[in-house]
Amino acid sequence: MRNATLRPRRTVILGQGYVGLPLAIRAAQAGHRVVGFDTDSRRVKRLQAAEPLSPDVPVDQIATVLASGAYMPTAHSEDLAGFDVAVIAVPTPLRDGAPDLSAVERAGQTLAPHIRPGCVIALESTTYPGTTEEVLKPLLEAVSGLRAGVDFHLGYSPERIDPGNGTWTLQNTPKIVSGINAASLQAICAFYASLVDTVVEVASIRDAELAKVLENTFRQVNIALVNELATYARQLGTDIWAALDAAATKPFGFMRFTPGPGVGGHCLPIDPTYLSWQVKRQTGCSLRLVEMAAEINGSMPTHVVQRLTEGLNRRALPVKGSRILLLGLAYKANTGDTRHSPAFTIARLLIAQGAQIQVVDPHVEEPFDLDIHVHHAHLTTINLERADAVVLLTDHDAFDLKLVERHAVYALDCRARLSGANIERL
Q1: pTM of the model
Q2: Which H or E element spans position 294?
Q3: Catalytic residue among 189, 267, 285, 414, which?
Q4: Among 20, 25, 156, 220, which residue carries the largest CB count within 10 Å?
């Protein structure tokens, strides 16, 4: 379905983070009157001042919709009153290996007193199949006294935000939509069609919920495959990067995934676990491939430290006391997103062994949330030459990689971006 015209609606977006903020600003740009609700009052104050909070939302866009009155950030629940459309886009982390839906439940409890007949509610938070109908729906009905699918519309539309991706944005990435019945699907489809170029209707909410975790589980499993191959490729006398380059020339039946120091962000370390947790809870069986993939990817920081230790040993240097320069804290290039970044684990492991760590990341503001002390540094000739080892963890475009090649005594390249006699690739 292509973009459609919809009369301006009073729209509430609960959660103003990596998912909710781009959605709120896009809805305001599309002509809706948007209330951006967040329980973090500091975040709200920064939004009210049009300060940068997301790599996908330029400050000038925030300033424009604030000035026009189309967007109102707030931490006050009474500002939700009178909404026509509400979208829940709050975090769904893991706690002790199980899904933590407390933020979704709190958002539902906050929203429910303001539900009116005819309004539309969509959940965007990533979760396991069954959440919308088994957790959110009964909560909304119990508090509001209204019936979902009869008095108000309810559905699920999984977020597909890719931080820092300037090619595939919220607007041009196809948007999956679903509803608990035909009327809800139609209403939710109409809302999202006013924001994005293409909506994809899915008849079952559970299928839409599964589609989201399937997308990320697909990536997790394939990244685990190349990560595991990377740990053994040298012992086989092969170059995993050269093999990937060769395999990627096949125009069908192959999709390129690359090794790295581990996986980060909200999606890969979390979403596949949601799926395996739900399968085990409902069937008593394990998703063995998914669980093994998580184990492999979770072991990569330890493998990086092992490779670095071997490299230092060949140079007659112990890890203890060595000066190590880590390039990149963010989990993804050209962003400041440090959620579940493997760089944090690598830094902790090295510090535990007595290494002297310096970190370079122009996209991440200090103080670093490491619970341990690290020194912030700049990528300079002096810092490179003083370091016993340099580790490229995140390949930001801002890094002068030629400078690293010329002046690093020894570098471990986890992204296959460097070359030279002083460079080893993961």
Answers
A1: 0.90
A2: helix 288-298
A3: 267
A4: 156
